[in-house]
């Protein structure tokens, strides 16, 4: 009897152990991928294997410009939603006019980077995983390697650079869209004029508030690229595998983004 | 690869010497195009070529096309068997005017 | 052809490889001379595709050495490998063209990454190679607009654009109709004759193998059964080679104890 308990306990330990190993392995892989893509960006040109600028720009177009409308709509909606909630809450204290400060801080410090990150994870992260996964299945990755073209340099480095540039820009765009949403609703609901709203927002915000959001968006850009790329590279088993990897990369990216958000918010506000 | 350029009465001979490959073919190309820019007939001497790859052949193709457009005479001379088989692979042996000797080139009109 | 003392282009010594804990290749010894066409044959699961992956430097073997053009690829650093790869061309089974680029861009890709040539020169080179594989005028199309046979030929054009010394084909005739596959066989022979390439072809198509091979290596369950000329292979009295040649399923005597233990897992 006691033997079976010991056995079960050992089994349990083994499961914990092997999943820990997997987690560490996974984290190690992300880290290695990060170092490798950064290394190509920096030292690639010296080995006559530079990261191609046109491919960075084409990635920036698809990540950035194409995502603008949806980022605007979502962030605008969040701005409106925040204004509704805050006016409702602040009414209790008769402090409706404080809604401006609340919306400004919530949008710039939290919601704009978060919604942009989640959107890009669903849009670009999944696309990256699907693209690399399909290439892996079609032996295109192998073909690149045998041609002496390092797949990380050719596929991941440009994506990483483009993301590091575009996600903060989109986040800033989301800041403005969200604040605009808040301003419009507040104007209608409590009759605050647009220019007064803008003045008060500028007075309420410090550069640090915006920087905090942008800094977090950089971290999100890293997470999305690395999770998408590593899931794409590790695809096995044909079209079904590509589908699985795409789903996994979105779920993982969003989870990591939310957790990283919590951790960074905690440390940035100490 | 070395390049020897020799002026005759009404044509210029470009002698390629050594391996015409990825690293040296752009040099050969530049010289060929330069001579053609001066509106001169051209004979490419390949007799000292130890190896020619597709980039070298591509440079010859480009040169021949430019010469044709300007109604200049273009010819290859001293094509080795190895070079010939590279040309044959892309059926270019049927395209280039190939001469066995300088005399043959000199006698023929455009 | 292999008898007249030629330089050795590929030399594999005591190669052992694993996939996870499973041993895939065991004690592989193989040499291919310069300008030789070597066919690697075997049933599915024989390890022939695995052997190709290792020859291409896409895996790290457990043991043994793989020398390509005199260099042991198991010991090369990244830079040396990068240089060596300029002399290697590979035509993958499905073509493996990058689907985001036109055929012409695909063919030019190795040039763009490895050589500093004028754009015009690269264009002409790419078109020349497409002519070699009878795809002249197709450079503006996307891979998705081509048939399977055309994609395979375009992949050959990309593989030979750098005039490699070593050329590898993975199942060139798989999924092609007999006429197209015969054309590919002719192309392989022409490439060898024109450029003295050393060519390794992995295939299970007997007709094509017999037609183009200088020598054939027969793999079975991770071991080399035989590595010899077409004639010798045909005349071999090895039962497994004969069953492969005659397309017979293997009917070996069953070891009752072993079989039972395999079935019951005890």
From TrEMBL, chain B:
Residues 1-110 form the STAS domain. Gene3D superfamilies: STAS domain. One of its GO terms (molecular function) is anti-sigma factor antagonist activity. InterPro entries: Anti-sigma_ant, STAS_dom, STAS_dom_sf. Belongs to the anti-sigma-factor antagonist family. This is STAS domain-containing protein.
């Amino acid at each position: 009897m006691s033997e079976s308990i010991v056995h079960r306990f050992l089994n349990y330990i083994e499961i914990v152990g092997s999943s820990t190993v997997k987690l560490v392995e996974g984290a190690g892989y992300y880290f290695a991928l990060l170092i490798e893509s950064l290394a190509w960006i920096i030292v690639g040109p010296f080995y006559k294997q530079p990261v191609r600028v046109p491919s960075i720009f084409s990635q920036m177009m698809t990540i950035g410009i194409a995502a603008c409308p949806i980022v605007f709509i979502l962030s605008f909606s969040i701005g409106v939603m925040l204004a509704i909630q805050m006016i409702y809450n602040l009414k209790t204290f008769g402090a409706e006019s404080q809604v401006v400060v609340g919306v400004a801080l919530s949008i710039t410090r939290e919601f704009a980077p978060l919604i942009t990150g989640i959107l890009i994870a669903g849009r670009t992260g999944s696309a990256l995983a699907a693209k690399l996964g399909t290439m892996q299945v079609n032996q295109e990755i192998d073909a690149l390697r045998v041609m002496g073209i390092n797949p990380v340099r050719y596929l991941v480095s440009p994506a990483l650079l483009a993301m590091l540039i575009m996600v903060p820009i989109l986040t800033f765009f989301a800041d403005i869209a969200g604040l605009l949403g808040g301003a419009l609703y507040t104007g209608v609901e409590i009759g605050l004029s647009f220019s007064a709203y803008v003045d008060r927002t500028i007075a309420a915000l410090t550069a640090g508030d915006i920087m905090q959001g942008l800094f977090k968006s950089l971290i999100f850009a890293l997470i999305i690229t690395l999770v998408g790329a590593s899931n794409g590279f590790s695809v096995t088993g044909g079209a079904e595998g590509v589908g699985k990897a795409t789903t996994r990369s979105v779920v993982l990216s969003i989870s990591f983004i939310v957790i990283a958000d919590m951790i960074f918010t905690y440390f940035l506000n100490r | 690869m070395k390049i020897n350029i020799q002026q005759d009465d009404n044509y210029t001979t470009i002698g390629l010497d050594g391996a015409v490959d990825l690293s040296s073919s752009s040099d050969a190309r530049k010289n060929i195009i330069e001579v053609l820019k001066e509106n001169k007939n051209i004979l490419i001497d390949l007799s000292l070529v130890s190896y020619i790859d597709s980039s070298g052949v591509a440079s010859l193709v480009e040169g021949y096309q430019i010469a044709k457009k300007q109604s200049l005479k273009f010819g290859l001379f001293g094509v080795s068997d190895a070079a010939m088989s590279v040309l044959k692979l892309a059926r270019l042996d049927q395209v280039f005017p190939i001469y066995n000797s300088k005399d043959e080139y000199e006698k023929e009109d455009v | 052809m292999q008898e007249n003392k030629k330089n050795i282009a590929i030399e594999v010594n005591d190669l052992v490889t694993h996939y996870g804990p499973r041993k895939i290749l065991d004690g592989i010894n193989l040499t291919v001379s310069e300008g030789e066409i070597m066919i690697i044959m075997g049933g599915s699961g024989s390890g022939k595709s695995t052997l190709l992956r290792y020859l291409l430097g896409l895996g790290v073997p457990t043991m043994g050495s793989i020398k390509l053009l005199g260099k042991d690829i198991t010991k090369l650093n990244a830079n040396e490998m990068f240089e060596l790869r300029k002399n290697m061309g590979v035509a993958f089974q499905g073509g493996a063209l990058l689907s985001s680029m036109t055929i012409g861009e695909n063919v030019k890709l190795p040039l763009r990454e490895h050589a500093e040539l004028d754009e015009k020169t690269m264009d002409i080179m790419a078109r020349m190679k497409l002519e070699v594989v009878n795809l002249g005028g197709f450079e503006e199309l996307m891979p998705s607009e081509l048939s399977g046979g055309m994609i395979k030929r375009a992949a050959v054009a990309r593989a030979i654009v750098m005039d490699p010394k070593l050329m590898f084909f993975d199942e060139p005739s798989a999924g092609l109709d007999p006429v197209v596959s015969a054309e590919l066989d002719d192309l392989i022979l022409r490439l060898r004759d024109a450029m003295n390439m050393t060519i390794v072809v992995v295939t299970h198509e007997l007709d094509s193998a017999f037609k183009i091979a200088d020598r054939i290596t027969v793999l079975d369950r991770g071991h080399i059964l035989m590595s010899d000329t077409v004639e010798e292979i045909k005349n071999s009295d090895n039962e497994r080679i004969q069953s492969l040649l005659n397309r017979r399923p293997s009917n070996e005597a069953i070891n009752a104890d072993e079989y039972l233990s395999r079935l019951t897992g005890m």
